[in-house]
Amino acid sequence: MHTGMKDYPSRSREIIRGDPGVREAVTGATIAFDRKRLQGYAEVDAEAWRRWAEGVKSHTLTHLDDYLAEAEARLEANGAEVHWAADAAEARRIVTGLADRYSVTSVVKGKSMVTEEIDLNPALEAEGIEVYETDLGEYILQLLEEPPSHILGPAIHKSLQQVQELFADRLGLEPDGDPDTLASAARQVLRDAFIRADMGITGGNFLVAETGTVALIENEGNIRLTTSLPRVHVAVVGIEKLIPRMTDLAGFLQLTARAATGQPIGCFVSLVQGPATHPDDDGPEAVHVVLVDNGRTDVLAHEHAWEALRCLRCGACLNACPVYRQTGGHAYGHVYSGPIGSVLDPGLVGLHEAMPLPFASSLCGACEDACPVRIPIPELLLEWRREAQEEGLTPWRERAALKGLAGVATRPGLYRVVGKIGSRLGGTGMARALPMLGEWAADRALPKPSRRTFRELWREGIE
Amino acid sequence: MARVVRATASRPRLPHPGALAAAASTDDAVDAFVKRFTSSGGEVATADSERPPDDWLTDFLRGLDPEVVGVAVGPDVPRELSPGLPEVAAAHAGAGISLAWAAVADTGSLVLPSTGTRAVQLLPPVHVVWVPSGQVFARLEDALRELEPELPATVGLHSGPSKSADIGRTVVTGVHGPGRCVAVLS
Ligand code: SF4
Q1: Is A44-294 in CATH node 3.40.50.10420?
Q2: Domain B23-185 belongs to what topology?
Q3: Which residues of A, range 324-353, sit inside 8 Å of B by Cβ?
Q4: Which of A169, A222, A280, A317 could form a disulfide with B75 if both were Cys (CB 3.0 to 4.6 A apart)?
């Protein structure tokens, strides 16, 4: 799902000026997540873990054909059915086709970015099927008809008061309920939905080739219920989610949780091999795995961008990013937002479509330092910028300004000073002080009235 | 698949880095499990070795607040580990009683095979899990390697109670899964 990439600058402005609560909520949440990640990394030899994870993922991606074949064979041996979707439309057709095959009228979903990417919910609803997002944050957004703004905390941009108002309006609660009361009201609605549902739809954090295991990480337990109670489970999984062995999975489950929230592991992990066959197992009678390409093979073939496919969708780069913290994910106009979105989206949907996302960064490098699979995000951003310039996708003023900025950015002292002047003066003042930045600075580098610079905010986050 | 083959064709194939070298823990695995599991909000109880385990469990459940009246018991839980309380459907039970395949120290996890009936593991507000003695692994990797030849349809790793911070960043427990998770060591 995307909503017009060209709008990044105006969208950011709108969010920052029109809804200042968003910046406050997103900044607070991401700084808290980021702090937890640092604690989580400090408890282990994070450098060694990250190098190892980078190695396993790069190995897998350069052997992806072999591992996909192995996973498919194993899943089929386990009694699951495997489907291949070249693009979003085909993925939607496969899932709606399965819903039809099993006469499904009600679906529960676990949080999944790939089903957002393929815009699955409207396709199911068009068939008259009721769809419940069951992650608490996703459920809130479904009631609001908004897309998620963060991989991990889809509703982090909402305040308690906004949720109170929403639940008062939609679930008839008193408008001053505490989070416990609100959560238990949602739990009741969703518990009924779980019991009623014929089909559970999830994504997949990992797919283990050796065993055909779809691994799912969460904290609420809604994914365990989604993969257990309905009679059919459909896992929609990007082809880059493969890892070779079960022993690799042990490391990735821990590293993903540490990068995302600092936890040693998610409260619940589901390891799904196939449909229930044992008489005491009350799980689904059918398990389907839909393997989605939707632009991923283009990224895989790209000389540089392929490294972005290592991404575990942990959200650590979003949390660390001073630019993301200003607006949350909605400004990016794509399912994948923040630093990883800015390098992945141009590969998935084409650079022209994704402009000007590769420019929505100050290249401070915080994302790369946070990333559990060491994706060189700043380098990839520069690569996309270079390609954009080659293809004439940027106006000349921008090109000149970027040259200037690159010079500044590589000299941290100067960069700090420039950033500070910019935030004192605001966009136009910045443009006057540094005329080469012009329009670009007004829209992107300084989308905030704050006196604190990105770097100051960033320091606050780590101290 | 043809597209994947094409996309990987021009790139050198990189080697697998081998096993993740984890620092050898000197802690006792059971102690390490207790520490991790409780720091994630899990609870640990130790059965009274002087008493029959079913009696001990019955009293334990009666002593909870709110007192557990009806229970749902996994089909693989032996009779001598089942409480003397009325059995009801998992959706209405005050507690679910399961038998773990193992516990894991480095992640503080209980390993629960789907053959233990998932409704028992997921629907009641309290989940009480027997951990077989001698089945506490130091590392998740060791547990998964050992489990691999006999993998059931699904395995759940439970490492504490159900949690969410989606509303106003306040942590609430028991959102969907059990709000209390008690590991019983014997
Ligand atoms: S790019 Fe790295 S840090 Fe960002 S979401 Fe992906 S794995 Fe996490």
Answers
A1: yes
A2: Rossmann fold (3.40.50)
A3: none
A4: A280
